[in-house]
Amino acid sequence: MTPRAKGGWAALLCAFVIVPLPAFAHHSFAMFDVNRTTSLQGVVEDFEMKNPHGWLDLMVLDDQGKPREWSLETAAPATLSRAGWTQTTVHPGDKVTVTLHPMRDGSNGGALLSVNLPGGRSLWAGQPQYGRQP
Amino acid sequence: MSRALAMVLAGLLMAPSCAFAASWEHYAYPDDGFAVQAPAPLTIAKGQFKTPMGLSGPQTVYTARQDDIVMQVTVDDLRGTSVDKQTALDMAVKQLAAEGAITLNVEARIDAQFGRNLTIADKDGGRSVAAVFFVNGKLYELVGKALPPDPSSGSGKAVRFQESLELIGLGAEANRPENRADGQGRGAGGPGGPRRGPPPPQAFEACNGKALGDQVQLTTPRGVVPASCIQTPQGLAARPQRPPPGGPDGPPPN
Predict the structure, then answer these.
(1) Is A26–B110 a contact, with Cβ atoms under 8 angstroms apart?
(2) For residues B44 and B34, what is the distance between their CA atoms, to the nearest angstrom?
(3) What whole-number distance in Å separates Cα of residue B118 and Cα of residue B47?
C-alpha cells in the first residue's frame, strides 16, 4: 500500500471514529430544540460539574418579573474541563448571561451552550451547537 | 420604576431561593440497573403491576419529592412475560396518556438504548416530563412532575431529573465510580449484567453513625482509601473517592 493510500484509509477511519461521537453522548438531544438558540440573564443558584452531565441552575425573571428557576444541562465534566471550566468557575449569586438550546416543550430548561461571566469572560459549555446564534 | 430599584427588588426576590438551593446527588440503584440525580434519596416501594392486558409481575417504585416537584421511577419486571419492546413502550405511553394530554412524544436515546421522551399536561394542572425505556425485560418509566398550580415553577427541575436517567450495567457507564455502590467492582447488576451484591460490610461499618456525604476511611482489599458516605438501596455506605490503587481504573499500587 502506498503512503498516500495509507493516508486515505487513516482519514476514512478517523471519519468513522470521530463523526459518531456527538451522537453517542449519554443521551439524545430529543427534548432540546436544537433549531433554536436563545439567551437568558440570571443569577447562579447552583453549579454542579458531575457525570454524565453538569448542571447550571439559574434564577431568571420572567416576563412578569417573577423569579423562575432554570436548569441548564452542560456537557460532561471532562469536556467542560477542556473548555476551561472548573468547579469554581461560577458561584451562587453570580450574575451571568447564557446561551442555550431551549426545551421543545417550553419547560424552564435547556442545553447550555455558553456563559458570559461577571468579569466579561465567555466560556463554551461543551454542547454541540446545532442552531444559529440569536 | 427606576432600573436600579427594579434590580434591587429582583435581588430580594431571588435571595431566599439562593439560600435554600438544595444540592442534587447521584443515586445509583444497581439492582434495577439505573441511576438518577435527585435532591434527595429516592424511597423504594415494592409491589406488583397489573396491566389492562392481564399481565402482572414485580414492580418497584422509586420516589422523591422536593417543594413543587415529584420525581418517580417505576420499574416493571416483565421478564416473566412475552412482551416485546414496542408493546411495552406502547403500554407505558398509553398509561401516561391516561394522566392527561401528551404534548410531546419523541424518540429518545440513552447510550445505545432507544425509548420515548414525553411531556404531559396533567389533568390536575401539573406538567410531567417522562422517559420510557425497555431494557432486557424491564420497563423503566421515569416521571418528573411539576405540581400545580404553577407547574412552570418546577419544570426545570423536572427536566433535570428526566435528563439524568442512566441505564447502568450495560457498558462502560456501569464502571463509573458513582455507579458502583462499593466503588470498585466491575460489572454491575442490572439489565443483562451479572448481578452484583450490596456493598461490602466494611462499607456500611465505615458510615455507621455518619451522615450523607461524610468523609471516612474505607478498608479495601488493596488498602485503606478515603471514601464518602453515599446512599445505597441497602443504606448509607462508603464509596472510595478514587478507585483503589491497582484497581481496574486506579493508579498502580505503590
Answers:
(1) yes
(2) 13
(3) 25
The widest CA-to-CA distance across chain B, in whole angstroms, is 67
Distance CA A107, CA A104 (A): 8
Task: Using DSSP bridges, classify how beta strands A95-102 and B69-77 pair: parallel, antiparallel or unpaired.
Answer: unpaired
Closest Cβ–Cβ partner in A24, A52, A69 for B156: A69
Residue B216's contacts (CB-CB under 8 Å, 6 or more residues apart) are B206, B207, B210, B226, B227, B228, B229, B238
pLDDT bracket for residue A102 (50, 70, 90): very high
Task: Output the nine-digit C-alpha cell for A100.
Answer: 442555550
pLDDT at B233: 62
Average pLDDT over residues B55-69: 94
**Closest CA in chain B for residue A64:** B10
- A3 at B interface, C-beta within 8 A: no
- A:B CB pairs within 8 Å: 113
B157 contact residues in A (CB cutoff 8 A): 69, 71
Complex prediction ipTM: 0.76
Q: State the cell numbers at B41.
A: 434519596
A positions 50-109 inside 8 Å of B (CB): 50-53, 55, 57, 59, 61-62, 65-71, 73, 92-93, 103-109
Please give the mean pLDDT across all residues of chain B. 78
Question: Residue B158: its chain A contacts at CB < 8 A?
Answer: 107
The pLDDT value given to residue B127: 96
Distance of CA B54 to the CA centre of its chain: 29
pTM of the model: 0.68
Min mean pLDDT across A11-20, B54-63, B108-117, B121-130 is at A11-20
Residue contact A109–B159, C-beta within 8 A: yes
Residue A43 to residue A50: CA distance in whole angstroms:
20
